[in-house]
Amino acid sequence: MTVALWCILIAICLPYLCIGIAKVRGGYGLRHNHDPRGFLDSLEGLGKRAYAAQLNSFEVTPAFAAAVIVAHLAGNAELVTINVLSVLFITSRLLFIICYLADWAILRSLVWFVGMGLIISFFVVSV
């Protein structure tokens, strides 16, 4: 397995890190287990931002996974390039989550654009 393929697994796991933060911060307990989505909708502050980061992570992960797989299948990009782009993407996602939790909205948006640029880069290097 390449580093890039391991990064797909990391990207798949990142939303669960976010939701863990949301549930811990929101005082989630077994009493909320009957309606966990209702509980998440009631969050405020850090918990709400962690939940939003989780949703965004679920939205972007399929695009990242597809980009990595396309780059591997196209065979035109150097493996080291694909691996570096993957690590940079995961780094951008971690920074995105940190910015979301810290409520740094402008920086968060800039980091999001960097991540999207990295996804596009997989296709560009695969030509």
Automatic annotation (TrEMBL):
Domain of life: Bacteria
CC terms in the record's Gene Ontology section: membrane
PANTHER family in the record: BLR7753 PROTEIN, INNER MEMBRANE PROTEIN
Main location: membrane
Location of the protein in the cell: Membrane
Protein name, entry field: Uncharacterized conserved protein, MAPEG superfamily
Transmembrane segments: 80-102, 109-126
Keyword line: Membrane, Transmembrane, Transmembrane helix
Pfam families per the UniProt record, alphabetical: MAPEG
Entry keyword Heme: no
